Amino acid sequence: TTLEDNERIFTELILSIKKRHSEVKQLIRDQERAAVRRAEERLEQLEQEIDDLKKRDAELKQLLEIHPIHFLQVTGIFSNTDDFNQLL
C-alpha cells in the first residue's frame, strides 16, 4: 500500500541521513586529528629553532667577551701568522 511504501521510503531516508551524519562526524574527527598532529610537529620545529637560536646567542655573547686579538686568532681571519703579526 501507499502508506507502507511511504513508511519504507522515510525509514530508508532516515537511515541514509544517519549514515551520512556518522560519516561527516568521522571526517571531522580525522581532520581534527590531522590538524593537531601538524600543529604539534610545527611546535616541535619551532622549539628546536628556539633552542638553536639560544645556543647561537650564547656563542655570540661569548665571542663578545673575547679580546679582539684572540678573536682574530680563534676565527682564523688571517690565513697566516705574518698577516697576524703585522697587526701587532
How would you explain this protein's 3D organization?
The protein is an all-alpha fold and 88 residues long. It has one domain (2-87). It has three helices and no strands. The chain has helices at 2-65, 68-75, 81-87.
**How would you state the average pLDDT, rounded?**
87
Tally of DSSP β-strands: 0
How would the global form be characterised?
rod-shaped
Global Rg: 35 Å
Helix content: over 70%
Low-confidence stretches: none
**Coarse structural class:** mainly alpha
What's the number of structural domains? 1
Q: Number of DSSP helices?
A: 3
Q: Which series of helices and strands comes N to C?
A: HHH
The largest β sheet comes out as: none
Percentage of residues in strands: under 5%
Distance between the termini: 111 Å
Protein name: TRIM8/14/16/25/29/45/65 coiled-coil region domain-containing protein
Pfam family, one: TRIM_CC
Keywords: Coiled coil
Domain TRIM8/14/16/25/29/45/65 coiled-coil region: 2-80
Note the topology.
Elements: H1 2-65, H2 68-75, H3 81-87
Concise structural overview:
This protein is mostly helical. Helices cover 90% and strands 0% of the residues.
Task: Name its key features.
88 residues, mainly alpha, 90% helix, TRIM8/14/16/25/29/45/65_CC, coiled coil, TRIM8/14/16/25/29/45/65 coiled-coil region domain-containing protein
